[in-house]
Amino acid sequence: MLSRLFSLTSLLLLAMLALAGCRMDTPDVAPDALAQAPVEPPKDTPAQQAERGDGAVSTDPVVVGAPKSEGALPTEWPTAKVASGTAHVSCQADYTTEDGDGVPLESLAFFSVVDALSPCQKGGVLRLRYQGKIAADFTDLVQRVADIADRMGIHKRILDLDSAGGQVEDAIRAGDAIGASGWTIWVREGSVCHSACVFVLGAGDNRMISGKVGVHRIIRMSSTATTRSELNEELRGVYDRVKDYLSRNGVAVAVADLMMTVPNRRLRLLSKDELQEYGLDGTNAAQDDLDRLQLMRRCGADFVNRRDAFMRSFDTECKTAGAGLDEMQACGLELRGRFQFPDAKCPADSPLSEFDRLADVEVAPGSPDDATSAPPPEAGTAH
Description:
By secondary structure, the chain is an alpha/beta fold. The chain is 40% helix and 14% strand.
């Protein structure tokens, strides 16, 4: 998918991460309460939910092997709404604009999602802000937004996530949907991604982290175990599924081993170095391998080599400490010419291709800003 290849979103959020990285804490241990899912949707923030312990809860029967695909959504979508948190849709990558987090999205009916995403079709970028628990309705949310985005040709997708966790099985289902539909996952400054949320984070094509990421032990709420041995046997099946999931998403299975050692009443925060070491920060290694193969077939080895060189130069020359987003964007645009981008054969795959598309939208043929455009047609003439 074109969206998975060095998108504007990746650059902007990598830049944010570079600026905010110095604020990441070193490994720490924070208190966490009993992990029990509330009956009613929580009214407080995900950070407060973390203190209460809406973390990593497992309830599904333990099965061997990867879960079966549930397939595409039917044309007649079943009734659904966002009930475990709040969702907003914005057509801007950054939340500091006048648009903020965008318009709220509660109903997941077909035309409700269409109405929310329609303004994003022109620029081809959407940001889905979700704050709350990872549950079945969260999976519905990401599936349906991705489905409509595909139909509208909106290929730059950011999941702006703030969650203290939730159901492990729902997080894995949501992660599989995210992994198949080209998302950048962003945990922005002031947000958290704890417990089961980490499985969602791992599924992104890119992961941009300025907030706090933490893990603890999975809880078997449906367990009938009466001894440690029996509980361990149940958890072994859950962790085997978790490890398989992490592996196929380019995340180190050591994350699952680490979770096993942290009591569910505690929370182990991951440092910047640990996030990178475990494959939870930056480019998804598994997706990068696939993208690279597809890009080489489509655009050739020379294109791939130039793109890689551009990315290295952007990291060293443009992402300097203290540089603002505008400066980094200008640096990247100027840098493109040195590596012969945009490429004539593969312009849409070229670095910062979104700027070319946005420029076409802002100064389209026939618009008042287009100095070469013909006068507008008189009333009653065909367009």
